[in-house]
Amino acid sequence: MAEDIFQNKYSLVKGAARRARQLYSGMPQLTETSSLKACRVAEQEIREGKVTYVVPQKPPLPPGSSL
């Protein structure tokens, strides 16, 4: 399932929104779908595993610093 690819549902939604913006801006689709809506196409691409999402690592805090 697509949620397994992402850390949580928030990451899934964020990744789908980012991909939908790319599609809306003119990037080609990675899958065939009957929908013309960018958000539905992005959702389908994620379900098929054609879109990957990298969660950036936070750099470690220097010693002695706090949040």
Features:
single chain; about 70 residues; mainly alpha; 3 helices
Q: Give a short account of the largest sheet.
A: none
Gyration radius, rounded: 15 Å
Shape annotation:
elongated
Q: What does the average pLDDT come to? A: 83
- Global structural class: mainly alpha
Assembly state (oligomeric): single chain
Question: Helicity level, as a percent range?
Answer: 40-55%
Strand-residue proportion: under 5%
Number of helices: 3
Q: What string gives the helices and strands in order?
A: HHH
Distance between the termini: 35 Å
Question: How is the topology of this model organized?
Answer:
Blueprint: H1 2-5, H2 9-24, H3 38-47
At a glance:
By secondary structure, the chain is an all-alpha fold. The chain is 45% helix and 0% strand.
